[in-house]
Design a protein that fits this description.
By secondary structure, this protein is α+β, with helices and mostly antiparallel strands. It has one domain: Uracil-DNA Glycosylase, subunit E, CATH 3.40.470.10. It is 51% helix and 12% strand. Strands 1-2 form a two-stranded parallel ribbon. The longest helix has 17 residues. The relative contact order is 0.18. The mean pLDDT is 89.
């Protein structure tokens, strides 16, 4: 599928599968590397995200950069690609 431009890596299993060495840290560390992964010139680009579980509500509260920085960027990227 050569037209793929962005792959969302939801959860640590997907991150480890697709990112090799970059996906071997903690889920927080991998998601924090989102800017580096999203700005890579190769296609498709990857965007790591936490699993959308109610158990991650605490994680989201302790990582305000996720809602403040990553989610707005994700929304812009999806709009641009659609």
């Amino acid at each position: 599928m050569p037209q793929l431009e962005l792959i969302l890596l939801v959860g640590s299993y997907a991150q480890r599968w697709h990112l090799d060495e970059a996906g071997k840290g903690s889920m927080t560390d991998v998601v924090k590397s989102w800017r580096m992964l999203l700005t890579t010139p190769s296609k498709p680009r990857y965007l790591p995200l936490p699993h959308p579980s109610w158990r991650n509500n605490g994680w989201i509260k302790t990582n305000p950069w996720f809602e403040g920085d990553l989610l707005p960027t994700l929304r812009r990227e999806v709009r641009r690609l659609l």
